[in-house]
Description:
This protein is of the alpha/beta class.
Amino acid sequence: MNKKNRVFIATSIDGFIADKNGEIDWLHTLPNPNNDDMGYMEFIRGCDAIVMGRTTFETVLSFNIPWPYQIPVFVLSRQLNNLPPNLTDKAHLVKGSLHDILKEIYQKGHNQLYIDGGRTIRSFLSEDLIDEITLTTIPILLGGGAPLFGDLPQELNFELLETRTYLNQVVQRHYQRRK
């Protein structure tokens, strides 16, 4: 089966995924009376597992809602030694090099991966392991915070596949890695 590592993430106009305090409440500053998911459900239907970093995992836990994912979640962490017992069949702790982790996940039959979390995405990009990026830009300048992108060991070229507009202000671009 064709393996793909995909990103679906929102940023501010200036490229931040969290504000200076690590908060993401700015993502919900625009009126969204119909609760448009901006393509998320369509995207997640094409994924069979999620790979996220510890910070993103802890952020999801802080929402104090029922576990939101229907597909397996693999949590990358050097610091965590175990996950909450109520997530035993839903989330799995993985450690090691990204190539070893991907090999382990692929061997479990998961080939369409959603890569989530700023540091995790940057790590995957550094190793040229991202195949597609769906980037949603919220019309706000945060002026600082957690950046989505950072230094890369080499230039990575992507091809624009599609652009969509939501709520007459939010721009979403879907890119595919060009190798």
